[in-house]
Amino acid sequence: MNWETGTENKFKVLISKIPVFHRHITESVVRQKAAELAAKRSATEVGEQDVVAAFFSDVPSPFYSMMLRLLEQNGFDYKKYGYPKNGKQ
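^ thats the sequence. predicted structure below, dont judge the formating
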């Protein structure tokens, strides 16, 4: 599935900042989940909301604070999509 250009560019920068030993698996999992979420909402492109939801769907607890920091530093406004849920911050 195609991606919105701005979203994909921000995602690529974010991925480049993830520790190298986690980078490939994170990119693969998030790309797949984001595409699934975009398809579920009948979108023709993966958008920011899909990437945000994909990150929040399965991030292991030890990496949660790093994920929040990376999302914020790379222009992903996760709060406008209702994250974090369940009061987890």
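Helices lie at 5-16, 20-40, 48-58, 64-73.
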